[in-house]
Write a structure and sequence with these properties.
4-stranded antiparallel sheet, single chain, 1 helix, 155 residues, mainly beta
Length: 155
Amino acid sequence: MTTRSTRLAIAAALCACMASAAWANPHRLDDSASHTVPPNVQMQWLPLTPGQAFAGGMEATLRVNVRIDTRDWVGRSGRIYMVLPRDQASTVEAVWSTQGRLQAGRLTSGERTLVYAGQITSPTLEDQLQVRLRSAPDWVSNSRRLSFHFELDVD
């Protein structure tokens, strides 16, 4: 590569990075009408199984009735992500299936994952998730609130 083409490649890469950063402007969505069934879940110890990431950890299953307020975004296209911020406690893995409005998926503490992409056509986005939560054996709390939330990146 010549020096000029190297500079052009670097400039193009920087423009692409700046453009993607400008588009990645997440808006936190109101999901306060969502609720879990049961409202409080007791984690249970898993049997020791060598070779598994969460061997000997804790597990719980629950249903989440998701209701996301999207009224400000009707007619717009975008991507909705479920987010689980990292906290000071043990890492948690969530794996879920859905009734079909949102995408099934997997998420661990400190990540976000895509659950919807496309045009927002109604003032609320609703689905029911069957969720399995898992934690490593370093789970130390009798009570812990997981702060899942949803973010929208508008196209």
